[in-house]
Sequence to fold (137 residues):
Amino acid sequence: MNVGDAAERSGLPAKTIRYYEEIGLIAPARASNGYRDYSGDDIHRLAFLCRARNLGFSIDDCRQLMALYQDRSRASHDVREIAAAHVSAIEAKVRELQSMRSTLQKLIHACHGDDRPDCPILDDIAGAAEGNRAPTA
Fold:
């Protein structure tokens, strides 16, 4: 089947499928005319990648998970280790987002939201930007 059919069946855009081929995640056969020819197994692998990416796994994680999925002699603890590391990264991101939300909520509360030009939100952003500047010589 062609890339359009593969996209429809796997739930991935054709552009993503081509990208996955470019980086070596999938390798569909080529028909005699040179066009990609996706098999049922290719669609299954693409759907697997779609689900893994929807769960937030990186391309590198997907590569490892795909290799483990295809290796019937795999040890499940290898898969578990990848998933546990991903959960730890998600938890760190959640903490970071909660901190951002808390800071923004405090700034919003401090802002009068009226016609005056002074704005604690902008003052805080400008102060943070100044704190991140490299010293000038």
About this structure: The longest strand covers residues 29-30.
